[in-house]
User: Fold this.
Amino acid sequence: MSWDPSQLDSPPPAEMPPPPPPVQRPQHPLRRLFAPFAGAALLVWKLLGPLLIAVKNVKLLGASVTFLISLAAYTSIWGWHFAVGFMVLLFVHEMGHVIQLRREGVPASAPMFVPFMGAFVGMKELPRNAWMEAKVGLAGPVLGTAGALVCLGAAMATDSNLLRAVAYTGCFLNLINLIPVLPLDGGRAAAAFHPAFWFVGVFVVALLFFWHPNALILIIALLGGYELFHRWGHRNDPKWREYNAVTWGQRVAVGAVYLGLIAVLVAAMQASYLHRTF
Assistant:
């Protein structure tokens, strides 16, 4: 390194002046007021944001939660093996309603499950006529019966008593659902015939209640009696006469599906019945 003597006489470099202090603007009162809320919202978004984004477009979230709750409830009584099979068949039944509603152009929610009460599908508009109501009502038992028959076939192929029990239960519930009383599916199918069929349904449900007292059967009887009273009292109104205007061909189609389902379900119950051995 070379050394230059002239550097001894050179003045030291001047120091840079410090930067001016930042100008502090007065904070707006509203900003001071909402600052804690904004901080909390940011924290919540950081914690839950990925989850909210993941489920934003998942329409089956509510159905999944209620499905799991019902599954846990049935598992506590029957064990998880039978509970899973039962819930799958219940889901298949309800999806029959969903598929038919969407085929009719009616927006429908995913199935929602209620422990020990079954399940339901939300509709954003009512059926336009009794023919449409009957098709939507029978779509659940049709698909539910198909699911039970698949389960029965698997039971026979594997010689599984568990699958036989699941198939039998699925057939039994679909058969009960065909009782011609609202809000059961059979009551919606009966709308395509004549309101008088609902008298038969209410009578059958009343007999079931006296034979096996049950809160669910009592609720069905009360709802069926109310719907019968309401619809029977307005059966001659122009609005209801137009609603119930069903052709003979449509009646025959509904009757054939209805009676065919009953025959298939009874036969499947006989095939899947487990005889108790001692």
